[in-house]
Amino acid sequence: MHLQTVTYGAPAGWSAPLPVDQNGSRTLVLAFAAAGLADDDAPFQALRDAFPGSLLAGCSTAGEIAGAQVHDDSFSVAIARFEHTDLRRACTVIDSPDDSLAAGARLAAQLGGDGLRAVFVLSDGLRVNGSLLVEGLTRHLPADVVVTGGLAGDGSRFQRTWVLQGGAPKTHVVCAVGFYGERLRIGVGCEGGWSHFGPERRITRSQGNVLFELDGKPALDLYKTYLGERAAGLPGTALLFPLSVAGEGQETLVRTILAIDEKRKSMTFAGDLPAGGSARLMRANTDKLIDSAGQAARTASAGADLGAEALVISVSCVGRRLVLGERTDEEAETVAAAAPERSAHVGFYSYGEISPSARGNASQLHNQTMTVTVFSEA
Q: If the chain, 378 residues long, is cut into consecutive pieces of 10 residues, what is the mean pLDDT of each piece?
C-alpha cells in the first residue's frame, strides 16, 4: 500500500500537490470536509481531475481529523493505493429513516461477491435510522465481513449533511466502499469512556428511533429536568448528556439526540430505542474520553500487519468534541500515537459511528464513541 495525506483550507489551498501518479482502480481517495464547503466546487473538482480512475468517498463533518490535529472548515484527505486489494463503490438514495433497512439491503446487494472482506459506509446524517441501516447491511452480507463507517455531520447545527457521490457532495445519499482480497488486514476498535448518572428508567413508549415515554412520563419533559438551564439549547446541548440504552438481553449502546418535537414531547435519536428496554443518562469525564480513544486505536492496530503501511480512519462523535472543547486535539493525538508506525491517520466527527464493539461481533450503530478502523495489506 502507498499512502499520502493532504489537507485543504481557504485561502491557502492544498497543503501539498495532489499525487496524480497514484490514480488507479485500486486507489481510494477518502475526503472529509466541513459541511459548508459543499458550496465551493473547486476542491472537489481538483480531486476529480487528479483521480479520474480512482474511487472517491467522503462526507461532511463536525470536525476534520488529520494526523494528530482536528480542523474546521477544511478538507482532510487520504490517498491510499492498495497493491493487492480491489475496491468497489455502492450508493443509494435514502428519503427518510423508514427507508434505512432497505437502503442497507440495497448496498449489500451491490457489494456482495467473492473476496469481500470489509465495507466502509458513509451516510447522510439527518435522514437515516442508523441502527436499521447497519442491520440491513449485516443481514445481507457474510458474517465475517467487517462493517465500519459513520453518519455525516454538520457541526452542532443539524441542518445539512452530505456524502460524496460521483466526486460531488449529495444529500439524501448513503455510499459504501467494498474491499476485496485475501491479503487485506482489518483492525477495529470501539470505546466510549462515558459514565452513568441518575436512575435507570424503562422505555415505556417508542417507535423505531423516536422516544416518547420513560417510566410512563413524557420523555422530553423528563430529559429537560436533568438539563436544567441547558434545555434551552436543545437539541445541541443533548450531545453533552447521551443515553445508554439496552433491550432485554442485548448489549448496552449509547444513543444521542438528533431532533426534538415539542408538540409530541418526543426525542428522535440516531438509532433505535427498544420499547421495554432500559435507558440511563450519561455524562463525561474528559480524561476518560481521551483514554478511551487511545484504547480504541490500540485494539484496532493489533489487527493490522504492523510491518506494513496502514490507513487509520477515526470516526468520533460530535458530542465528544463538545465535551472535550479545547482538549479535542488530544483525542486525535492519542489515536495517532497508538497507531502503527507506518500509518496515515484521517477521520471526522460524526452524528453516529458504525463498528463492531469487539472483533468478531456484528457491527452496530454507536453514538458518543470513538471508533477506529485500520486497513493494511500482508
A: 95 95 98 96 97 98 97 97 98 95 98 95 94 96 96 92 97 98 96 89 94 95 89 83 84 85 91 91 89 96 81 95 93 96 95 85 90 96
β-pair partners for 374: 187, 312
Say whether the peptide bond before residue 142 is cis (omega within 30 degrees of 0).
no
Q: Name the strand (E) or helix (H) holding 263.
A: none
Whether residue 183 is found in the same domain as residue 225: no
Cα separation, 139 vs 285, in Å, equals: 36
- Are residues 244 and 111 part of one domain? no
328 sits in the region (left: phi over 0; alpha: psi -120 to 50; else beta) called alpha
**Three-state secondary structure readout of 138-200:** HHCCCCCCEEEEEECCECECCCCCCEEECCEEECCEEEEEEEECCCEEEEEEEECCEEECCCC
DSSP label of 271:
S
Show the domain range for 255.
194-284
Number of helices (H) and strands (E) in the chain: give both, helices first. Answer: 7, 28
Total number of domains in the chain: 2
What distances in angstroms separate CA 339 from CA 44, 75, 187, 320, 370, one per listed residue? 29, 21, 11, 20, 14
Angle between helices 328-338 and 286-302 (to 10 degrees): 20
- For the record, the C-alpha cell of 23 comes out as 490514480
Which CATH number fits the domain that encloses residue 200? 2.40.30
Does 12 share its domain with 129? yes
Length of the chain: 378
Q: What 3-state DSSP class applies to 342? A: coil
Instruction: Say yes or no: 136 and 256 in one domain.
Output: no
Alpha helix ranges (H) inside the chain? 42-50, 100-111, 130-139, 219-227, 286-302, 318-324, 328-338
Whether this prediction's pTM lies above 0.85 is answered by yes
What lies within 8 Å, CB to CB, of 319 at 6+ separation is: 239, 240, 242, 256, 367, 368
Q: Of the candidates 243, 258, 284, which is a domain's last residue?
A: 284
- DSSP letter for 124, please: -
